[in-house]
Design goal:
This is INRA2 protein. It holds the Pfam family Interfer-bind. One of its GO terms (molecular function) is interleukin-22 receptor activity. The structure is a single chain. With 153 residues, this protein is of the alpha+beta class. It folds into 2 domains: 7-106, Sandwich (Immunoglobulin-like), CATH 2.60.40.10; 112-143. Helix content is 20%, strand content 35%. It is built from 2 helices and 10 strands. The chain has helices spanning 37-41, 114-138; strands at 7-13, 16-22, 29-30, 33-34, 44-52, 55-58, 62-64, 68-73, 81-89, 102-105. The strands form 3 sheets. Strands 5, 6, 7, 9 and 10 form a 5-stranded antiparallel beta sheet that branches. The chain starts with 6 loop residues before the first strand and ends in a 15-residue tail after the last helix.
Length: 153
């Protein structure tokens, strides 16, 4: 039997990508119930191939005993496009189909304190606008309380 392809979903994180893998379904039944590959093989191996501008890089083979699992590929260049393909094999079955390529752009690291600086800037701008409006009102240009003398109208 040929294993695969697995379902692969990737999302970006700062300088990394998160790869979620769902094992391929098996067509084997036991007692009328569809068995998972974990039921059959107990442990599976998966190979992740990472493709970028630098070419293809096959990562070290890992093992899993879960139907759905995630792994994070770290130390990537920010704002660079990466593609991932996953191949799932068993120790007793090396016949497998890789997943189609999934691509995503690695997120860039947010600058520390950026959010706080943006909020502080907005508060300062608001205070300046309020002060200017208060001065203009005090000078009598807006919301005049007194009516002008008839001769100035």
């Amino acid at each position: 039997a040929i294993l695969g392809p697995p379902e692969v979903n990737i999302t970006s994180c700062p300088n990394c990508i998160n790869v979620t893998i769902k094992l391929p379904t098996s067509h084997s039944r036991a007692k009328g119930k569809l068995q998972s590959l974990i039921d059959i093989y107990k442990e599976l191996h998966y190979d992740i191939t990472l493709k970028s501008l630098d070419g293809e890089h096959k990562r070290q083979q890992e093992k899993t005993t879960e139907e759905v699992f995630s792994t994070v590929i770290e130390e990537l260049y920010p704002s660079r496009n990466y593609c991932v393909s996953v191949l799932v094999t068993a120790s007793l079955n090396k016949h497998a189909l890789p997943s189609p390529w999934q691509c995503v752009t690695a997120a860039s690291e947010p600058r520390p304190g950026y959010h706080e600086v943006a909020v502080a800037g907005a508060v300062c701008v608001s205070l300046v606008i309020a002060a200017v409006l208060k001065c203009v009102h005090a000078a009598g240009f807006i919301l005049q309380d007194k009516s002008l003398p008839q001769t100035l109208v």
